[in-house]
Structure formats: C-alpha cells, structure tokens
Amino acid sequence: MVTPMAFGAWAIGGWMWGGADESEALTAIRTAIDAGITTIDTAPVYGFGRSEELVGKALQGIQRDKYQLLTKFGMNWQSEEGEYFFDTRNEEGKPFKIYKWSSGKRIIQECEDSLKRLKTDYLDLYQIHWPDGTTPIHETFEAVEKLIKQGKVRAGGVCNYNPQQINEALKTIDLASNQVPYSLVNRDIEAEVIPQAIEKNIGIIAYSPLQRGLLTGKIKTGHRFNDGDTREGNRYYSDENIKRVNVLLNEIRPIAENHGATLAQVIINWTIHRPGISCVLVGARNEEQVLDNAKSLSFTLTDEELDRITAIADTFSLAKTETV
User: Fold this and answer.
1) CB 181, CB 204: distance < 8 Å
2) Which CATH architecture describes the domain 5-217+265-298?
3) Which pLDDT tens digit goes with each residue over 259-304?
4) CA 201 → CA 175, 192, 248, distances in Å?
5) DSSP letter assigned to residue 284
6) Distance of alpha carbon 13 from alpha carbon 36, whole angstroms
7) 173 pLDDT more than 90
8) Least C-beta-crowded within 10 Å: which of 7, 54, 243, 266?
C-alpha cells in the first residue's frame, strides 16, 4: 500500500538539480511523514548514493511499518558495463558516463548497498530504473524474485517500461507498478501504457507531475537555472514553451482561486484523479514545499472542474524547438 502522493527524493540528491541543502532535505522528509506522505521514492543514482543516505538518516527512530521505501536499481556510474545511457558531470564538475546495467549479479549487490544506505532490512518496492538492452528481462526479474523470497524486497516494479517490455517481464514476475512520466502537458502514456496497466492490475506511479516545476507557474520566459541543472536546454523550458504553458495555466487559475489553492496544488490533485494513476511522485527540497504539496489533498475538485482541466490540457501542444 502506498499513499496517493509520494515524496520524490530525486532533487534532494542534488545531482542534476543544481545542488541541495542536507539540513533542509532531512527536515523535508520528516515533515512529509508527519503530513501523511509516508511513501518515499528514491534511487542510488540520485546524488550517487546521497539521496538514499539522506532518506535513511531522516527516517531513523520512526517505526519501520509506518513508511514505505521505494528505490531502484540498474544505473551504473562506477564502470563502463551495460548499455551506454548518457554523459554527465558530478558536483565537482568531473565528467563521467552513466550506463544502464541490470544483470542478476549486479542487482543482488545493488540491493545490499541500498539497504545499507537506507538503514533498513527490506525494501517495499524495488524497481528497475530504465530498460537495459544488454540484459535479458527474465534474468533481471529472476534476481528480483530471489530478493523477494529472501524477504529483502516486498514487491517488484519497473520504470519507463513500454507495454512490450511489461509483457515480457510478466512472464517472470507479478509486477506491482510501472513508474513513468506524466503531467498535464506530457500525457503520452494515456495511449497504451495506462490501458495496459488497468488491464493487468499494475499501478502507475506518475513522476514529474509538475513537469519539474514548469506547471507551478513560477517559471517565466528568460528564466536561468543553476549550474548543473538539466532543465536548462530541455525542450519544455524554451521561452516559447514556457509562454505556452503559462497561457494554459492562466485558464486553470480561476479553479485554483475557487479552492483557495495554488496552481501546483490543483494540478497535482487533477493528476491523482486520472484513470490508472495509483500514486503521484512530487519532489521537495524543504519543509515549505512539502507542506504546499500536502495541501493538494485537502480539497476536492468537482467532476466538472476535473473535466474542465482535462479539456484545457487537450488544447496544449509543445512548440517545435531545437533544444532537447
């Protein structure tokens, strides 16, 4: 069981978000638990272990069955084994490569490393982070099944899997979930992924519901991100698309005002109520952001309002841009 909203712990790892403050991160996680957001989603690659370590540190002293730990496997930055994914730099600016690698032996070791960083003896959900073209899907999930039998993992899931990959994985394991990007302006999964999930009884965990801050309405044309923040240059953050999104948000603003809520809170609420969505990941760096996110669950959108937001979203399309 997970909460409708989960604390997304990518940003607190710092990497790809322009850094993060440890004290604020610890307070944010504890505030989330107090606010009833007891599902925490992290990954080894978020800050190269830093996010998991912060989550583990923050949760010390809290009864283990009072929260759910979701983490991932299959991202390799220590060697050049697996399927090449992309080039990046660490916080010191040192360049290196990321590979997707989910061999059976690798998964067993990754699980042990995550358990240590998270200071726990089991994971509620263990997810492959990205598909790995170098490892047979059955090998990956035979290893996950082994971890489940050992009691180190309660359930297995996937991230960023297409329907064909899901079907292949189901030959080996009963998948609990598929974690995929989904937002008001990125609804590609509605075509095939969500219908399959509903049919196969697989929960959809939606990540980036606010399109990494774009749907808060706080990002304006000409915005400049911190060094190391990968939103700089992303197609969603071109001036033309920022302008288009803000026009869209202005149409939703009266609904937010009607509920005394922010745009972000209304959009999170709408996302939670979309067909097939079991849980929405919302990131936060500090206590204030957590409390703002939690208020998304404090009001009820009417069916008419939900339909109105969907109709507004139906009119949106990304402008063509050279950025990627």
Assistant:
1) no
2) Alpha-Beta Barrel (3.20)
3) 999 999 999 999 999 999 999 999 888 999 999 999 999 999 999 9
4) 9, 14, 33
5) -
6) 22
7) yes
8) 243
CB 156 within 8 A of CB 126: yes
Side-chain half-sphere exposure of 50, counting CA atoms within 13 A: 18
Over the chain, what is the mean pLDDT?
93
Q: Which residues does 55 contact at the CB level (< 8 Å), separation at least 6?
A: 9, 29, 40, 42, 69, 118
The question of whether 161 is a catalytic residue gets the answer no
What's the average model confidence in pLDDT over 208-232?
82
Contact 65, 323 (CB under 8 A): no
* All structural domains of the chain with their residue ranges: 5-217+265-298
Q: 193 pLDDT band (50/70/90 cuts)?
A: very high
Q: Which pTM value belongs to this model?
A: 0.93
Contacts of 19 (CB under 8 A, 6+ apart): 91, 226, 228
